[in-house]
Amino acid sequence: QADLTSRSGFARVADPLGADPVRVQYDGEPPLDLWLLRSGRSLEGADLDSFRRQLERAATLEVDLVVVDTPPALAPITTATLRASWLVIIQAMPGKESLERANDVITLAQMQPDPPAIRILVTLAHLQSNLFRWMQEQLDELYPRTRIPSVVPYEMPAGEAALFEVPV
Predict the structure, then answer these.
(1) pTM, two decimal places
(2) Strand runs (DSSP E) across the chain, as ranges?
(3) What is the CB neighbour count within 10 angstroms for residue 87?
């Protein structure tokens, strides 16, 4: 889907598996050695070997941490990412559909030979809404100790950043 790519101020790319890594610098933040392998919808159809090559490209950057922003689909990229991960953070917006998608990823993660730790981050939440409170209750009941206490509230700048392909 490439949300991380667009919210970092870069255009989505048609061929993410061939695109060069780009250095990321966020306005107002101290300089970081942060690189992004840009994404695009075509990753949803990537096979396991192609995605493994993408992870190998990330390893050539000699970084301590690789963040993979997978498409919201149970495609080979998701399975490959889960196999290579020690921690999976699932972004979940308040709502039944997001809860079901989180369940799908958690189920797939638990099927891996060495399952990663799972954490769920509630995002784009209207903090005073009944739906937000319901979502927190459901996560705590269904997946104890996985919900990250911090919440990313709904803010127009985040939506605008994706639309105009500029950093938040």
Answers:
(1) 0.74
(2) 22-23, 35-36, 87-92, 117-125, 147-153
(3) 9
